[in-house]
Amino acid sequence: MNDRERILGRVRRALADVPHDDPPYEQAVSRDYLTEHGERGVEETVELLAENLADYRAIVHRCTAADLPATIAGMLTARGSKTVLAPPGLDPAWLAAAGAEQVADRAESTPHELDRVDSVVTACAVAVAETGTLVLDGGPDQGRRRVTLVPDHHICVVRVPDQVVSSVPQALTRLTPTRPLTWISGPSATSDIELDRVEGVHGPRTLEVVLVSD
């Protein structure tokens, strides 16, 4: 008897007393739980997102759609970025005022090449206010996962209020589970046994979020 047979045998014994007409899992588990904590209006939800993003040490900016190119250009200049990566589906107008050299998102780019890129600018799929989380799903304006994990500086644009939800359950209804989902809560960080925080270990050291409204 191999390990697979042992495990399946234990499963069968555990299920031996379950009646054949037992309700299926989808019906047995109640799904009537709350999908958000409290009731908030649109402005309150956006404010909560900005507050939680900042609490995770992300740098939050706000602007209108018309001011977005100038806002991104100012962020790149302040950072001293000479190169910026843009996913193929990103609106070209967003980087129209950027003075940095634009780098294409290429499948053959190596981690060393991506590491030499100063900044990356992407959109997002959805933003969760209660957790201060940005979710990327690899869409055309977000690019491959690695382009947001290797460069040290990530600028993420969130359309307000269309892409902002209150809670994770609400976010899940907008996402496709088969897509490559990346959940981002602040810049990459970890702590050692003495709780000394180190940023930039598993991803960008600096995360800047632009909340852009019409």
Automatic annotation (TrEMBL):
Pfam families: LUD_dom. InterPro entries: FTHF_cligase-like_sf, LUD_dom, NagB/RpiA_transferase-like. SUPFAM superfamilies: NagB/RpiA/CoA transferase-like. PANTHER family: LACTATE UTILIZATION PROTEIN C (PTHR43682). This is Uncharacterized protein. It comes from Streptomyces lincolnensis.
